[in-house]
Structure formats: structure tokens, C-alpha cells
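Case study: peptidoglycan lytic exotransglycosylase.
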Amino acid sequence: MIRHLAAATAATGALLLAGCVAPRTPPPAAQPRPAPTAAPRPTPAPTPPAAPPAPVGTTAVEAGVEVVAGAPIPLDAARALSAFRTSCRALERRTDQSGLTQPGDWREACAAAATVAPGGEPGFFANQFAAVRVGGGDAFITGYYEPEIAGSRAPSAGYAVPVYRRPPDLVETRTDGRRARGRLQDRRVVPHFSRGEIEDGALAGQGLELAWAADPVDLFFVEIQGSGRLRLPDGGVLRIGYDGQNGHPYTAIGALLRQRGELPPGIGMAEIVGWLRADPARGRALMRENASFVFFRELTGPGPIGAMGVAVTPNATVAADPRFTPLGAPVLIEAETPAATGLWVAQDTGGAIRGANRFDTFWGAGAAAQATAGSMSSRGRALVLIPRAAAARLGRGDAAAGR
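Here is what the predicted structure looks like once written out:
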């Protein structure tokens, strides 16, 4: 989710506490959720288990990859096949950061996916893919969703919080393989405005207001999710998605509250929201300590849009770290939380989704999605499914499947 993307998630609240959530980071032109009311109240998350330590290495190959025979494919694989089909248009154009696959590896599977009859989904995945265990396979699974908040296309009484478009001076640079964002000033790239500076009017008067939200706390959590829906005064919906971030590092306000003794360990997003609303001045100051700020664009058609530039699929899409899981690859998850167990497809990324076998499951929109995502925080085991040609290269002992 992109996103920051656009964030999200040891359950959203748990990640806020853990200090590792950053907005999820959707695709170049995109993006990686609602209560049916204007002011969502997510379900409190349980005390999150500690995420497993990240394996040594910066890619799947460096972390260690083992081909696993006989991985069981669940019978309920129809949603995963639909998500995989959606990914195919991007799969053959992408460079796989994990080193496991080449674009051409996916051609046969994508062609076969187009002809699978209903009921044939498990056989398709079993025949076209081989399972690999990356970095030992220990997984940590959370959830994200598409929130809905009150908003308006124009400022008016009760709608005073601007939702900003991407500023034209926002630029991205790469130094030693590291990505950084800033703004152009006198032909130099300087840090972009922080959250506090933007809230104080640094972007006002430039025509960058995409819409106006009713509540700053609600909009803050839309940023964490990376996309959302604005419920308009006339009953219509304006869908917004991630379109850039100011480049400042993300600070998890839940972690700050815990460190300062304001809230106990193990509380969820609802308690964090309650704290922010109980004292608006202190809440505003706390949110400003997260200098990171997300810009949005209007979304039309299916969505939200994930890091592959295609719509993500509820109950089928996971955000993953593309250095360890090829985007577009199916992923078999066996989780302590039964809802997360099954076959998923890696179609998104996230600022907090880092390391091998770190997955963020997407649950769609609505109260049920919010409740599931808000309580999702589970250990588990994961296998990544890659085309058999790529697995064969691994089996021959190649240093990387991409060779």
C-alpha cells in the first residue's frame, strides 16, 4: 500500500505502537480502507506478538532460499487466481528485486491462468509453480483496509482539513541506491515541508487542495492506510489514493505514547484515537511529531491501487517486501490467526513491511474489513510460489534465479 504507504499495520494499531508503521507506498502513479460512519472506531488490537527477527541479507537470495516439494494448495484458491490474473499485465515488465525470477518466467503461468475453468484453481497453482522457503519461512502477518471518513470537495463549515495533491516541486533522488524525496528550490533539492509546516499553511494558496476532510485525526489514519474514501455531504464517495510522500521519516505515535507512559502496552488503534480526541491540542502536537505527510490523488475505477499499478483484491492481496518476495508471486501463509491462512498474491508494498516473510493482508472496505484488519497480528509460516523455470535455476545452484 505504496504505500507510505500509505502504511499500515501489526494490526494498524499494533504497528502504531510498535514504532514500525509507515504509510504504505503504492506505485509510481498510484495507490497500500472504512467504517460506514464518518468517524471510524477500529476494533482494539490484541497485544501483538513480536515480529520475528529479519534474516541476514538484503534480498531473498542472500537470506537463503530452499525449494520445498509438495506444498499443499488450498481448495479455496479462486480469489488468488483472480488477483494473479490482474497482476499478469505488469509481471512481464517488472524487474524482480528479490533475485528469484526473470520477467519471462511468468509468461507460461500467465497464459495458463487465462484458461483455468472454475474449480481448476488448485491444479493451476500446483502445476505452474514451485514453492520456496525464504530466510527460514518464519512469518509475521498484519492487516490493512480502506477507511471511510467524512469529507467534501469544497471547504465549508465542518470541512476545514485540506487533503493535498502531490506538489509539483516534489522530487525524488537516488544516492548509493537509496531513495530520498525533497523539493526543488533555487535548482537545489532541499527537504520538503514537514507535517507541521504543511498544517501551518506552507502549501496553502497553491490550488493543491484535492478535497477537505472533517476531522484531522481521521485523515491522519487514512494516510497510514495509504488510501481511503471520503463520504461527501450529498452521500457520494470520493476515493483517494497515495500519490507521494514528503520524504520525512515516519514516526509511530503509538510507540511514543507507550514510551511516555501515556498508554499501556497492548492497546489498539481505538485507544490511540481516543487519546488524540480527549485533548485535541496535545493530540495535534503528537501527530506533528510524525513529520511524514502523504499526498493523494483521486481514484476512479477498481481500487485501491497497489504497488504493481493494479487494483488490490480483498482477501487475496498481501503487501510484501519486494526484496524478498517477487511482486505478483502467490504466497502460501499458515498463520496462528486462521483468517490469514491461505493463498495470497503479493501485489502491494508498505513502509512498515520490511524483511523476509513480513506480510500485510488486505481486507477491503467496510466495518468487517476494519475489524479484521484492526485485530490482525499473527505469527506464521510462509512459502513463496515462483514459476518452475525460476525454481529450476535455484535447483541447479545458481546464485540467483535471475541469472
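For the exam, be able to explain this: Residues 71 and 141 are 20 Å apart (CA to CA).
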